[in-house]
Specification:
5-stranded parallel sheet, 8-stranded antiparallel sheet, 12 helices, Peptidase_M29, single chain, alpha+beta, Thermophilic metalloprotease-like
Amino acid sequence: MGTEFIYSRRYAAMRDPRLQTLAANLVRHSVRVQPGENILIDMIGPERELAKCLVEEVARAGGRPFVETSDRSVLRSMLLHATPEQIGLWSKLDQERMKQMQGYIGIRSGENVNELSDVPEDKMKLYQQLYSHPVHSEIRVKKTKWVVLRYPNASMSQLAKMSTEAFEDFYFDVCNLDYSRMEDAMTPLQQLMDRTDKVRIVGPGTDLSFSIKGIGSVKCAGERNIPDGELYTAPIRDSVQGTITYNTSSVNSGVTFDNISFTFENGRIVKATSSDTDRINEILDTDEGARYIGEFSLGFNPYILHPMNDTLFDEKIAGSLHFTPGQAYEEADNGNRSAVHWDLVLIQRPEYGGGEIYFDDVLIRKDGLFVLPELEGLNPERLK
């Protein structure tokens, strides 16, 4: 037995077994890797251990792993000096690579969520329009089996206001949940959503109505995001009327926004305010579709209770919803197209002000808990 092989076996034995469980779930459940498939593992940030586990797990499944590693601080420097021609060529190269992939696993980490906060807005628009939208929205999302997740680190622990060790325990509780059981519990809600016309959302600073008739809905149970736990649709594009006031912070282009409120007329955001009203309106003016809604979703991961300024976690908060300006997903499509897709979260549990959701004038959820008997399987005590 070679020295290298002995070292490899010892090194693997030292790994946190929860990481190996997560890697297996991502490869076997989320992306369902098949023999001969090309899988891109996209690692943003300094952590490497999960990427190694994923390479090994993809190979065990008969797939061919490809790895991209990058860093937000390097991206910042690049964007500060990038020209439209440069971003266009970068996009073209990565589009060609993405077209060769059957699967994509994106790992997001890094020490500073605000790393891109001082990149000028015109540079961020170029990045979104010329790179992110064609590479990810148009190819990765539409053409591959994909999943994206965060990796636990000290920065995330700070955002969650937890010790690093306590946050790691929380992270693996959330991410290694029994998602097949959750998927079964979603079925009654999906059936109800698919036959619903009018939705009304009421809460502090919020009285919003819209139609979802004929749009359809999609279960999210560990196949696209980890952590997961949501069921989404989209409003008919011009049906949204009223006001929504979100009660969680959100990072966009490296800037943290608080106290976000939108007023709609005939589907369009006609008034937008926040802790940075000028900048939020710049984002909404990216293109015509950015002022219309592309997604409406209900969140119900039983382990995620409080926001931590990380969309992948916050949009799954138990008793939450998100109402998303920008691009619609083709699986539940209202026709809205945009370089923007910004998931903004409203929590309706009592400690966050409460609230109600009505489907066709029938109360389905009050203060974050489903009240119809057939939906109670999605309440936290039933999902843990």
